[in-house]
Amino acid sequence: METERAEGIVLRCQPVTESSLIVTWYTREWGKLKTVAKGARRAKGPFRGKIDLFYRDEIVFLRSRRSDLHLLNECFLEEARRELRGSVEELTAASYVCELVDLATEVEDANAAVFDLLEDVLGVLPGGNAETLLVWFELRLMTLLGWAPRWGKDEGLGKVMGALTAKKVDGVRRVRLTEAQVREARRVLWGMWDESVGRMPRTRKCLQDEDDR
Questions:
Q1: Strand, coil or helix: what is 194?
Q2: Does domain 2-80 bear CATH number 2.40.50.140?
Q3: Quick one: 83-212 is in which CATH superfamily?
Q4: Which positions ≥6 away from 1 have C-beta within 8 Å?
Q5: Each residue of 72-122: pLDDT tens digit?
Q6: Which end of the chain has fewer CB atoms surrounding its CB within 10 Å, N or C?
Q7: Phi, psi (5° rounding) for residue 37?
Q8: d(Cα 139, Cα 169) in Å, to the nearest integer?
């Protein structure tokens, strides 16, 4: 097995045995990456406290020659982002962006811009304005992956979304979309997503429930 290094954000953790996890990462170097973390569920295991949703880690893994599931060898915690668990809204938003990246990307298809986009939005979600940030994130992700949204006859909304897409994350934090703009943007984006990806994110149901309140 070849040894490789990467900087990765945890998208998903799945129990695979009583003591181990399959961890799905989005990495700067390799794109989406899957590893087995042996002993990660043990109280005194080698990865205890280093792997959880949204964590950013430096990882060392042993590349499998037979599959796309590799063996995690070492893990060094860089940022835990525990503040994203401070409220239901922030936890839902962070879960949503990670699920979007997981569903929209192929295994080991590297795209450093997607990594930077995910890193940026996870870094600012604790500051609030989650609804606008999620619309911006979905716009930018779809654009990066080649699925530019079509706004149809609503030129007004199209101009607003075009201006929003061009902003960097710090600028987006100062933008407040109206409730009507958020609903219409989600309607268009979600329709495009379902058409392009074919799989609806499970976390979307939580956002729909928020809209219905």
A1: helix
A2: yes
A3: Recombination protein O, C-terminal domain (1.20.1440.120)
A4: 62, 63, 64, 65, 71
A5: 999 999 999 999 998 999 999 999 999 999 999 999 999 999 999 999 999
A6: C
A7: -110, 95
A8: 12
